[in-house]
Amino acid sequence: MAGSRISTKLLAMNMDTELQKHYALLLGIGSPWEVKNVELKLTEKKVEIELSWQWGADAQCPECGRKCSIHDCAPERTWRHLDTMQFATLIRARTPRADCPEHGVKTMKVPWAEPQGRYTLLFERFAVDVLLASASVSQACELLGIGWETAHEIMRRAVERGLDRRQLEGLKHLGMDEKSFGRGQSYVTLLTDLERSRVLDVVEDRTTEAAERVWQTLTPQQKEAVEAVAVDMWEPFIQAIQKEVPDADIVHDKFHVSKYLGEAVDKVRRQEHKELMAQGDETLKGTRQLWLYNPENFNPEQAQEFAALKDLHLKVARAWAAKELFTKFWDYQEEGWARRFFKNWFGWVSRSRLKPLVEVAHMLKRHLANLLTYLEHRITNAVTEGLNSKIQSIKSAARGFRSFRNYRIRILFFCGKLDLYPL
Ligand SMILES: [Zn+2]
């Protein structure tokens, strides 16, 4: 202990003006701020840099920028800076308080940090990078040597900055989608920019009211630019779009359609499997995935098994064929041809008497006008689906968010494509 105290003293004595200049450069500060003292605390693995204001220089009002006299100095504050060679580096300073004739006594802005920040701008910038690159927030916390709350604060401020700077002109194709939130049956509604693959905002719930609220985060001019919205056949969302962006086309998303058809195929399989098992027939045992996969992705073994199954005149094979056939709908260029195709497909499914499929066919018929809009706009919610895995990892990393606000900040931080940096 005594030894380290001596070495601290020696090091302190070696601090010359060159080193002080070096730190001033590192911190990006200049006159009238200067490095007054650099203290190495070896046992604590800390460097403390004391900054001071050159008296005589004018103070500046943080509100109006006017040059003022100095009233006094605020109490000393500490900011965490980027580590220096694994030494936690802290900045200490007493900030002058300007005496503005208009705004009164105000603590000046400092060039190295945001007004309420406890971290320097460089530290925050680095932290943003580490958070973006880390597999989880807790990993980033560990790397940065900060706590959960601090990480959240840094993300919150970064998102705030990003939203302030964000340009929302020329939004053309948007998507609306829901995501589950927390445990149980809670949902959030997401508005996404399909062209730039980014989440625009998130609101709690998936009601008409919630959907309207997420649209209201845009200005009337921004909404006017929107040409089409990709969305599921979910009534509250459809109503909100019709109210908030009445001139935009609604495009029911082909991935959602394919999901409904897939679920119908699965229902047919389960029912048929039950019937066959009652007669001791295990034909459909363990075939669930085969009917759901895209045949293009089968391995040779699966392809063989599937080819054999398809020829057995099973109900599920007919259901599967109906689903596969429907994918042709999206390839049409002309509405007339697509309508004709749909009519034939619908007739065929109706005659099939496969109840789950007939139900989906009726739903598609009710929404046909907004399926045909796809031919013009060619948009899907694939972007939202792509963001899904990111959002999923945000959710699982946090093990069930307690507060929606935190969840929203995370989604916008990781999926908002915002300019998050303080510098
Ligand atoms: Zn002022």
Distance between the termini: 41 Å
Number of strands: 13
Strand order of the largest sheet: 11-10-9-12-13
Helix content: 40-55%
General form:
elongated
Question: What string gives the helices and strands in order?
Answer: HHEEEEEEEEHHHEEEHHEHEHHHHHHHHH
Helix-strand makeup class: alpha+beta
Number of helices: 17
Alpha-carbon Rg, integer:
31 Å
Q: Give the DSSP E fraction (strand runs of 2 or more residues).
A: 15-25%
> Are there runs of 5+ residues with pLDDT below 50, and where?
none
Named once each, the bound ligands are: zinc ion
The major beta sheet can be summarized as: 5 strands, mixed
Mean pLDDT: 89
Description:
The chain is α+β, with helices and mostly antiparallel strands and 423 residues long. Helices cover 49% and strands 19% of the residues. It has 17 helices and 13 strands. It has helices at residues 2-14, 17-27, 121-133, 137-144, 148-165, 208-215, 220-224, 235-244, 254-278, 288-292, 300-310, 315-326, 335-352, 355-366, 368-377, 382-398, 404-415, and strands spanning 33-41, 46-53, 59-60, 67-73, 77-84, 87-93, 96-100, 104-107, 173-180, 187-193, 198-204, 228-231, 249-252. The strands form three sheets. The protein has a five-stranded mixed β-sheet, sandwiched between helices. Strand 12, helix 8 and strand 13 form a beta-alpha-beta unit. Helix 3 (121-133) crosses helix 5 (148-165), helix 5 (148-165) crosses helix 17 and helix 9 runs antiparallel to helix 14 (355-366). The longest helix has 25 residues, at 254-278. The radius of gyration is 31 Å and the shape is elongated. The protein starts with a helix and ends in an 8-residue tail after the last helix. The mean pLDDT is 89. It binds zinc ion. Zinc ion binds next to loops.
